[in-house]
Amino acid sequence: MAKLTAQQRRDLIEELPRLKRFCLSLTSDPTDADDLLQITVERLLTKGMPEDAHVAKWAHRVCRNLWIDEIRSRDVRNRYALSEGSSEGAGTTAANTDESVQLDRVAMAMEKLPPEQRAALVKVAVEGCAYAEAAALLEVPIGTIMSRVARARKALAEDLEWSAEREA
């Protein structure tokens, strides 16, 4: 593969905001999203891409593949840590405002979604991509995108209704 052309570099710079949102949709954590974005851009700059490659599609594919690699390595590290007898505990602090509490609920519900559904929902509902555009970026058929978005919306609605009923 060739290094990035000047046009590919310009296209990549234009794609960075969307790519960052995609990273956040995959990771559900701003710090991890920033790290993933940095690794993705670094990989694109060092490894390059074919001259005829669509920059946005290529960048999203590289990003998704890097995230899959990260998930796998985390699973291995977690299994090793558990086998060594260590355990992790994560504490969170609750927000004080109603709005931030609602955002926290939505964020938690989004984290429960499978990564494929979360990515599709973010592309369509958050970034405003058309189904066809999201399908092209995620490299799946348009029907798959429609199905994933519908299932994600249903799961979010059920989860958020259940949470509201439970707290009432």
Could you please describe the fold and organization of this structure?
With 168 residues, the chain is mainly α. It has 2 domains: 1-91, Rna Polymerase Sigma Factor, Chain: A; 92-168, Winged helix-like DNA-binding domain superfamily/Winged helix DNA-binding domain (Arc Repressor Mutant, subunit A), CATH 1.10.10. The protein has 7 helices and no strands. The relative contact order is 0.11.
Short description:
The chain is mostly helical and 168 residues long. It has helices at 6-27, 30-47, 55-83, 98-112, 115-126, 131-138, 142-167.
* CATH architecture annotation of the largest domain: Orthogonal Bundle
The CATH homology group name of the largest domain: RNA polymerase sigma factor, region 2, helix turn helix motif
Largest sheet descriptor: none
Count of the domains:
2
Order of helices and strands: HHHHHHH
| Gyration radius, in Å | 18 Å
Low-confidence stretches: 86-96
The CATH topology of the largest domain comes to Rna Polymerase Sigma Factor, Chain: A
Number of helices: 7
DSSP strand tally: 0
Class per helix and strand makeup? mainly alpha
Q: Helicity, in percent?
A: over 70%
State the end-to-end distance: 58 Å
- Quickly name the level 1 CATH class of the largest domain: Mainly Alpha
DSSP strand content = under 5%
Please state the overall shape, judged from the principal axes of the Cα atoms.
globular
Average pLDDT reading: 83
